[in-house]
Design goal:
Elements lengths: L1 H4 L2 H25 L14 H19 L3 H20 L6 H4 L2 H16 L6 H8 L1
Helix pairs in contact: 2-3, 2-6, 3-4, 4-6
Length: 131
């Protein structure tokens, strides 16, 4: 749709902000039991919820504001690919059945953001304008 192309930078920013905001909730759930209590106990020296929760809660807000967007999005994309293959894929092929649909969507949304950047409404874009 040609009329949307003039808004591509703003839409990219909205994708980054929305994905990061929903992603942060996974980290805060693991670390603080907020907004919903976690079913498994938090153990810092584990991959899940420990390391994954820390990455989600620390890198998520940085992605939300768009600072160091490309490398952070790349790391989070890898985290989601790792999560999918370690946790969800062994439960079966279909993402709806194995519970991995959000991991797959986050993985590819973050991979796209890593390639495209943070968009017009990001700290990275602001730094480029003022440099």
């Amino acid at each position: 749709m040609p009329f949307l192309s003039k808004w591509s930078e703003e839409i990219l920013s909205l994708l980054r902000i929305t994905a990061a905001f929903t992603f942060i909730q996974h980290g805060t759930q693991k670390l603080f039991g907020f907004p919903v209590e976690m079913r498994m106990p938090f153990e810092l020296m584990t991959l899940n919820p420990g390391l994954a929760g820390l990455l989600e809660a620390i890198l998520g807000p940085l992605l939300l504001v768009g600072v160091f967007t490309r490398p952070i999005a790349f790391v989070l994309s890898g985290l989601m690919a790792f999560a999918y293959f370690m946790v969800h894929a062994p439960r079966g092929f279909w993402t709806l059945a194995n519970g991995g649909d959000s991991a797959v969507l986050y993985c590819f949304a973050f991979l796209y953001i890593a390639a495209a950047g943070g968009g017009k409404w990001s700290v990275d874009a602001l730094r480029r304008r003022t440099a």
